[in-house]
Design a protein that fits this description.
heterotetramer, A: about 500 residues, alpha+beta, eight-stranded antiparallel beta sheet, five-stranded parallel beta sheet, 17 helices, 20 strands, globular, disordered C terminus, B: about 170 residues, mainly beta, about 55% strand
């Protein structure tokens, strides 16, 4: 294995930047953060060894600017870069630029990213590798024209999905129920795709009413070994994006797990994969599985795999990037998951329409205790704006079995105090309480089928507490600016209190 | 009771609060609170200067509470509630809530105006997409609630808008 | 198993009260807290389902008052009581009173507590059960007189320890180096013992220069089964009290582990033990082990056992008290520890003389992320007084192996931000960095042999930050009372900030 | 740099700080700090109203800081430091530190006087136990630093004392 870098630049923000920094420290590597000037006080900056200012502008000019990131690595003398997820994590250009700059790229080879990044190409490769893919419009012609697509649509049948070749993760896709809506859907998807991914190619896919979404964690090393680290059940979604993940999946029996795992390894092999990746499958009611896409990076939900296997996947990413082979026990199939793990994503959004919220976090108390891990990207005082992902933190639960994991998850969720901004905690609680989730018999339509989250009347103590706080802050000493609520101002006492007095 | 009185002055206090559709006059005196027409005994319990619990009918229940402007956030028994301080004399001016339900003309979420698809003076039809609002990697189409003429557009492309603000006026 | 109680009264405070409450919630039991009126705002009160005021007075009149605790259980309709550790957890009278009141006692039978509580009696029983005990003065006469003891002292040899029969956990003992000091030591120990334990009996024990302190977790059920859940290495001590514990112990090989485990089980059997207990052993340089004492309650350091075995020991306590048998895998010897766990105790005390500190916690940020568990009894704003144990929180680390556990512990410790009160964090860091601890070759004299913790010069950024805060708080608007530091007052902005503005 | 200026007013500021044995005059101006006789460029970085980092020579380093009375606590790079604000004109009156090292007559820790073993006026000898102080389950014997006469006893049994306060006077 090559020597460890002295500093690792983390080209990201939020919880994943903090998460990667923790592993870096444990390896004796100084984590270097980056931030947009307008984002100077971001939470992650307070958790790095040091950070570099990427300058003015929005995400595009900063966290997404390859030149500025490379300059930041140079100025901080960081010799390696970890992209986290999102932002440039799946940019083949970035991977190439980092390597060309003589820096260590903590991720898969750029050509593997490219091959999987184009969904059409990827589907073709998978078919070639004998991995089942969702029936779609890309069986024949390289680039089918308008008429071909409309004809294929008729063959596939409705409802179906129009998908952008450059899309993924639920972005750049549209559901079409009737043939007559197809042309407009094609146009709109092309527009979005061009704007979002600079790639206007689209294709059609069979639409499954209520499939499961199950993914496999895979790892490859530069010596040709590829293994999987078991599955993650990701069917609890809203807006085609994951909210709760768990492992193991109740939908898999040993034989199916083995078959899907083998397919995942084949998929990774087909693109010469090195490092950490995730192969996503659709699983239909009849337990047929289809390749959906491969994410060529660390997943948001990677911690549930870490918890059940007792591993640090970020450490494994770094060691493999440094040339280490896959750990022997991984290759020997000696790895056995212990117990059950559940991840809940706390988003700054409402629990019914899932619309993002912004504001300032005034009180932030995290759950803790046995079997509870919180990976947070915010804290008390953090301002949540509109420019970045609304993910606030991840609550990761481990327990000996699924039933006790669910009880523990409910307990932990009930301990979480977040005041000042609306979160989706009520949605998370509703899922944990739903019979479908508890039975394990659920699919991607679980949340759609839940009753709406209704606002509850506050109990007496809540009204009393509100009155206490309202009144204490209501005495205005100077003009219209209310005085800081006395009982809430740590300085009120602090400044008058004297040690030894 | 070393904790009481610490921070809190418990001389009589009265405030009108609303939570969701409910509005209530709450008055606090030493040891008792009147909620609308009910009286309940209570006492605050503090951790240093932080309210951790409220005694209510002889038992002490955990609570967290914080005020920001005229909004108050309260956590208790695992649930969070938002209150508003209402002007003492009856309800104040109707406040715009950001549920996006009432009217497509209100911004349903904070975000940036990604595209403006119409111009002032245009005649618009019900359901027509007027603007595309983007926040946190998500696009949201703002549609016209009815047929009419676009009298005013409050924002242009790239503008930042808060939740619940008016985006356009239609005659 | 009997039906679960609806409410469980936790007769304790601080981190253990919160810890027990968490398990209660996960079992669907409402945790009921108690507090002294003067301690009304204690951290744990904010983490219960509800709490009951024990009234005025110090610890003796409140947390140690059996009548008041029983009254609290009655008024809150709690049908079970968990004592935690310390306070009344090892009071046979309390255990009896709880049972007599018709409540469920989550702990061992009162007579088992009694038998182990009197250290002289316990030593005699252990000898009877064939468990090796530390050579001492209690071989012969029931109650040896002054002369006997002085003669025995000569036989045992100096240095030796004078121990109070009612003592334990490092309390009520004195080291004597020269024969001529023995009479005064006997007198002083008797005085302390009478005052502290209402039991003036003392005895002598051989003193070991640098033994290891290794304990075994045991569990018994009411059907006569007794098992051990492996060891905890507790040799990192100051003032005869533990600071860092780890499991497994590097000092034990499989054969020794098996022998000590069997002795621990025998010790518990000898007193008809039911529930969770801990058998403490001295381990000398030649790997001879001697029974030291049995703690008939949950240990502060129980979490490291939970982490390596993936268990919830509090849940097991409750289930066994309700009549459940020991889980089958425990009895079948199927239990195998996974990886390595380390606990670090954060105390409000200085790092050189270990003298307690009091004050107010102004900033409190806990470490988090993979393999990190924090059981805390304080938070931001908590006032730490002089009436209670100075333990603030426990940092529990788990990792695949000892080396990575130590690196993770260093990382987590470096993340911990506690401002406003002095803590022993520098001591904890010094232990983690010491060659002896890292090699695993250490004993109870580890901390004594460390170089003193020297205050370091602050770096530039610390001076700058201090100046920023000093100046912002220096503008005094009214008389001598300085204004709250602007940049630190969450209300300054909050009160002028308006949503939608 | 939206974050600067938020909360912090960066007009020139000067303060005398001490940490352990070191005392330093620190002056902050927009973008630069003078530490004693050295000038270093700097800028605060805030999270909302919370200082999370300080830019120093082009790189940004995490920091937490808080003031209580004339004491300032700072965390950075995993270590914590305590500062004191010194009166601008030279050092102020010598402050009693609670290390317990200087004199057995100072309370080495906060606690309760458990027992008083001597009376005012008694002649005492060096090393003689005068008081027994108890805190957090721990007993601590306060011994006489020298031979002499016990001129004054400041506290009685059961009294609560802070760290660093004088417990007795010996002539």
């Amino acid at each position: 294995m090559d020597p460890l870098p002295r500093r690792l630049l983390i080209a990201n923000r939020g919880e994943i930047a903090v998460r990667v920094a923790r592993t870096a420290r444990e390896m004796g590597i100084e984590p270097v953060g980056v931030f947009a000037s307008s984002d100077a006080g971001a939470f992650h900056v307070g958790h790095m060894g040091r950070s570099v200012d990427l300058g003015p502008g929005g995400p595009t000019e900063t966290y997404l600017s390859i030149p500025r990131l490379l300059a930041a690595a140079a100025s901080s003398e960081a010799s390696a870069i970890h992209p986290g997820y999102g932002f440039l994590s799946e940019s083949a250009d970035f991977a190439r630029a980092v390597t060309d700059a003589g820096l260590l790229w903590i991720g898969p080879p750029s050509d593997a990213i490219q091959k999987m990044g184009d969904k059409l190409q990827a589907r073709r490769r998978m078919r070639g590798a004998g991995v089942p893919v969702v029936p779609g419009s890309d069986g024949g012609a390289e680039r089918p024209g308008e008429e071909d697509l409309i004809q294929r649509g008729a063959e596939i049948g409705f409802p179906l999905l129009v998908k952008a070749s450059g899309g993924g993760g639920g972005k750049g896709m549209a559901r079409v129920d009737r043939p007559e809506d197809l042309p407009q859907a094609l146009e709109e998807t092309r527009r979005v795709a061009l704007a979002a991914f600079a790639n206007g190619h689209v294709y059609l896919e069979k639409f499954f009413e209520s499939p499961r979404h199950v993914e496999f964690q895979v790892f490859g090393d530069r010596y040709g070994s590829v293994v999987h680290l078991f599955e993650r059940e990701c069917s609890v979604q809203r807006r085609h994006q994951k909210v709760i993940e768990e492992t193991p999946s109740v939908a898999l029996d040993p034989r199916l797990r083995e078959a899907m795992g083998r397919a995942a390894v084949e998929a990774a092999r087909a693109v010469g994969y090195i490092g950490a990746g995730t192969v996503e499958f659709l699983l239909d009611e009849r337990k047929n599985f289809y390749f959906l896409e491969m994410n060529t990076r660390l997943q948001v939900e990677h911690p549930i795999t870490e918890e059940t296997l007792g591993l640090d996947l970020v450490r494994a990413q770094i060691e493999i990037a440094l040339g280490a082979p896959l750990p022997a026990p991984w290759r020997g199939g000696k790895l056995l998951p212990q117990g059950h793990a559940i991840e809940m994503r706390l988003y700054a959004e409402d629990s019914n329409e899932f619309l993002p919220r912004s504001g300032r976090i005034l009180v932030w108390e995290e759950p803790a205790g046995p079997g509870v891990r919180v990976d947070a990207g915010v804290g008390a005082g953090t301002t949540v704006g509109v420019d970045y992902d609304p993910l606030l933190a991840k609550l990761v639960i481990s327990a000996p079995d699924r039933a006790s994991a669910i009880e523990r998850a409910k307990r932990a969720l009930s301990e979480w105090v977040v005041l000042g901004i609306e979160t989706n905690a009520p949605l998370l609680a509703a899922v944990l309480a739903s019979p479908d989730f508890r039975s394990g018999r659920y699919a991607t339509d679980l949340i759609r089928r839940l009753p709406a989250r209704e606002a509850q009347d506050p109990p007496d103590v809540a009204w009393i507490a509100a009155a206490l706080v309202a009144r204490n802050g209501a005495v205005a000493p100077s003009g219209d600016r209310p005085e800081p609520p006395r009982s809430w101002d740590p300085w009120d006492e602090a400044s008058s209190w004297r040690p030894g007095a | 009771m070393g904790s009481v009185g610490r921070g809190f002055q418990l001389e009589a206090r009265r405030v009108k609060l609303s939570a969701g559709e409910r509005t209530l006059d709450v008055a606090l005196e030493e040891g008792a609170a009147s909620l609308g027409d009910r009286m309940v005994p209570f006492a605050p319990r503090q951790n240093g200067s932080t309210l951790v619990a409220v005694e209510h009918g002889g038992q002490v229940f955990p609570v967290r509470a914080v005020r920001e402007g005229d909004r108050i956030f309260v956590w208790t028994a695992g649930r969070t509630f938002e209150f508003r301080i209402e002007p003492a004399a009856g309800r104040g001016p109707a406040r715009i809530r950001s549920t996006g339900a009432e009217s497509g003309l209100l911004s349903p979420m904070p975000g940036r105006i990604r595209r403006v698809l119409v111009a002032q003076g245009d005649t618009v039809t019900r359901g027509q997409v007027l603007l595309i609002l983007e926040a946190m990697k998500m696009e949201h189409a703002i549609r016209s609630p009815r047929d009419g003429r676009l009298a005013r557009l409050m924002y242009g492309e790239g503008d930042l808008v808060e939740a619940g603000v008016a985006l356009a006026e239609i005659e």
